[in-house]
Amino acid sequence: MDRKRSLSEAILKRYPDKFTPDYEQNKKILEELAIIPSKQLRNNIAGYISKVLKASESPEEESQEPKAE
């Protein structure tokens, strides 16, 4: 888990605007940007990046919608 997290954070720092919360799209982007020795590691990194981006996106969406009382 440590390896996946550190690689994901390094890739996100280097290419912050390339990735989206979509897992499938992130897999394709990783294939183009980086040489990752195994398919499993690539998928783990793509999944972690998707998870991080979804988490950073969620609070913004909730705060923009007015709550009915």
Structural description of this entry:
By secondary structure, the protein is an all-alpha fold. Helices cover 72% and strands 0% of the residues. It is built from 3 helices and no strands. The protein is globular and about 50 Å long. The chain starts with a helix and ends in a 5-residue tail after the last helix.
- Please work out how many helical segments DSSP would assign: 3
Number of individual domains: 1
Can you tell me the CATH superfamily?
Ribosomal protein S17
Average pLDDT rating: 87
N-to-C span:
42 Å
Q: Which of globular, elongated, flat, extended, rod-shaped describes the shape?
A: globular
Please report the total strand number as a whole number. Answer: 0
Class based on secondary structure composition and strand pairing:
mainly alpha
CATH level 1 class label: Mainly Alpha
Radius of gyration: 14 Å
Strand content: under 5%
Helix-strand sequence: HHH
For the largest beta-sheet, the strand count, sense and barrel status come to: none
Q: Poorly predicted ranges (pLDDT <50, ≥5 residues)?
A: none
CATH architecture: Orthogonal Bundle
